[in-house]
C-alpha cells in the first residue's frame, strides 16, 4: 500500500516532473518507462551497484541507499575509500537500507529513481514518486552496469576515459608479468565453508583480463556464480598466489580473514601451497569486490607490487 505521505509528495511534484522532456527506456524487467531526457535529481537505491558507479561517472545522486554502523549512522558502502564521497561530506540524503524508507525517497524529490532487484522497496510504491528504472546488476555484470548508467546520464565520454585508463593498467601488468604461467584464485571462509568464485568482483575481472590462469575447480564454476565448498576442497582451490579479503566497513582486519579460514579447517595454511610459501595476499574487500574503476586501479597496483619482479615458487602439479 502506498503511504499517504509518499502519495502526497508525489502529487505535489507531479506537475514539474511532467513538464520535463522525456524519452522511453526499457529496463531489465522489460518495463518501458518514460524517463527525463536529462535527469537532475537521481535517487539510487543500491549503494555499491548504482551509487558508486554514478559518482565515478561524475553524476552526484541527490539521495542513496546505504548501510548503518552499530551506532546507527548511515554510510555508502565502500564509497569513502573508492570515491571520497559519503553522506557525511556531501549533500546526498540517506534513504535507509533494505528496504529503503519510501517516505525518505519521496521527501528527496527525485526526478528519476534507479533501483535493482536486490532492493526490496516495492516498485509500485516508488512509481508514485518518480519514474523508476530497475537494473539487474547481477545479470549485466559488475562493470557492464556502467554502460547503461552512462547512457542514461549522458556520461559516455567520461566512461570512455575510465575504460582507457583501465586498459592501460591491464597492458602494464601483461608487459611486466608472465601472467599465463601464473595461477591465481580468490577464496573466503564463511560459516565453516570455503567460498570461491568463477570471477570475484573487480579483482576477478582484473586477474582474468590480465591473463592469469585459475584452478580447474574454479573454471568449472559457471560464469557469474560462486560455490560454497567443504574443507576437503581447499587443495583444489590452491594456486601460485591466493587472494583473501576482509570487510573493513564492519571493522574487520586481516586477522579476521585468517580466522574465518581457520573456522573452515584448523591449521588451514598447512594445506595451501600459497599460504605456506608466503604467497597469499590479504586485502580489503571493498576495493576487491566493488564495481569501481578506481578500485580496478588500486588492484592493478597491488598485483604489480606483489608479483612483478618477485622471486616466487610455482605450486607443484
Automatic annotation (TrEMBL):
<dbReference type="InterPro" id="IPR051313">
    <property type="entry name" value="Bact_iron-sidero_bind"/>
</dbReference>
<dbReference type="GO" id="GO:1901678">
    <property type="term" value="P:iron coordination entity transport"/>
</dbReference>
<keyword id="KW-0813">Transport</keyword>
<dbReference type="InterPro" id="IPR002491">
    <property type="entry name" value="ABC_transptr_periplasmic_BD"/>
</dbReference>
<feature type="domain" description="Fe/B12 periplasmic-binding">
    <location>
        <begin position="41"/>
        <end position="315"/>
    </location>
</feature>
<keyword id="KW-0406">Ion transport</keyword>
<keyword id="KW-0408">Iron</keyword>
<feature type="signal peptide">
    <location>
        <begin position="1"/>
        <end position="19"/>
    </location>
</feature>
<comment type="similarity">
    <text>Belongs to the bacterial solute-binding protein 8 family.</text>
</comment>
<dbReference type="GO" id="GO:0030288">
    <property type="term" value="C:outer membrane-bounded periplasmic space"/>
</dbReference>
<protein>
    <submittedName>
        <fullName>Preprotein translocase subunit YidC</fullName>
    </submittedName>
</protein>
<dbReference type="Pfam" id="PF01497">
    <property type="entry name" value="Peripla_BP_2"/>
</dbReference>
<keyword id="KW-0410">Iron transport</keyword>
<keyword id="KW-0732">Signal</keyword>
Amino acid at each position: 500500500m502506498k503511504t499517504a505521505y509518499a502519495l502526497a509528495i508525489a502529487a505535489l511534484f507531479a506537475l514539474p516532473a511532467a513538464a520535463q522532456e522525456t524519452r522511453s527506456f526499457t529496463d531489465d524487467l522489460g518495463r518501458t518507462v518514460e524517463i527525463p531526457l536529462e535527469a537532475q535529481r537521481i535517487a539510487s537505491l543500491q549503494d555499491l551497484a548504482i551509487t558508486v558507479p554514478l559518482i565515478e561517472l561524475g553524476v552526484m545522486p541527490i539521495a542513496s541507499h546505504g548501510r548503518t554502523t552499530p551506532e546507527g549512522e548511515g554510510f555508502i558502502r565502500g564509497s569513502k575509500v573508492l570515491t571520497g564521497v559519503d553522506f557525511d561530506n556531501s549533500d546526498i540524503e540517506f534513504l535507509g537500507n533494505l528496504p529503503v524508507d519510501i517516505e525518505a525517497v519521496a521527501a528527496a524529490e527525485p526526478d528519476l529513481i534507479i533501483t535493482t532487484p536486490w532492493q526490496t522497496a516495492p516498485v509500485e510504491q516508488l512509481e508514485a514518486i518518480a519514474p523508476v528504472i530497475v537494473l539487474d546488476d547481477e545479470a549485466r555484470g559488475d562493470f557492464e552496469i556502467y554502460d547503461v548508467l552512462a547512457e542514461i546520464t549522458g556520461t559516455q565520454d567520461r566512461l570512455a576515459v575510465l575504460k582507457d585508463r583501465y586498459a592501460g593498467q591491464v597492458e602494464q601488468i601483461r608487459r611486466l608479468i608472465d601472467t599465463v604461467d601464473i595461477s591465481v584464485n580468490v577464496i573466503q571462509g564463511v560459516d565453516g565453508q570455503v567460498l570461491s568464485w568463477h570471477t570475484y568482483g573487480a579483482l576477478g575481472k582484473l586477474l582474468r583480463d590480465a591473463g592469469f590462469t585459475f584452478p580447474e575447480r574454479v573454471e568449472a564454476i559457471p560464469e557469474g556464480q560462486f560455490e560454497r565448498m567443504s574443507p576437503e576442497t581447499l587443495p583444489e582451490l590452491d594456486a601460485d598466489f591466493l587472494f583473501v579479503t576482509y570487510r573493513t566497513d564492519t571493522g574487520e582486519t586481516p586477522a579476521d580473514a585468517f580466522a574465518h579460514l581457520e573456522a573452515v579447517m584448523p591449521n588451514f595454511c598447512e594445506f595451501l601451497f600459497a599460504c605456506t610459501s608466503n604467497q597469499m595476499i590479504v586485502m580489503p574487500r571493498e576495493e576487491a569486490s566493488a564495481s569501481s574503476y578506481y578500485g580496478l586501479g588500486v588492484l592493478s597496483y597491488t598485483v604489480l607490487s606483489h608479483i612483478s619482479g618477485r622471486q616466487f615458487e610455482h605450486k607443484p602439479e
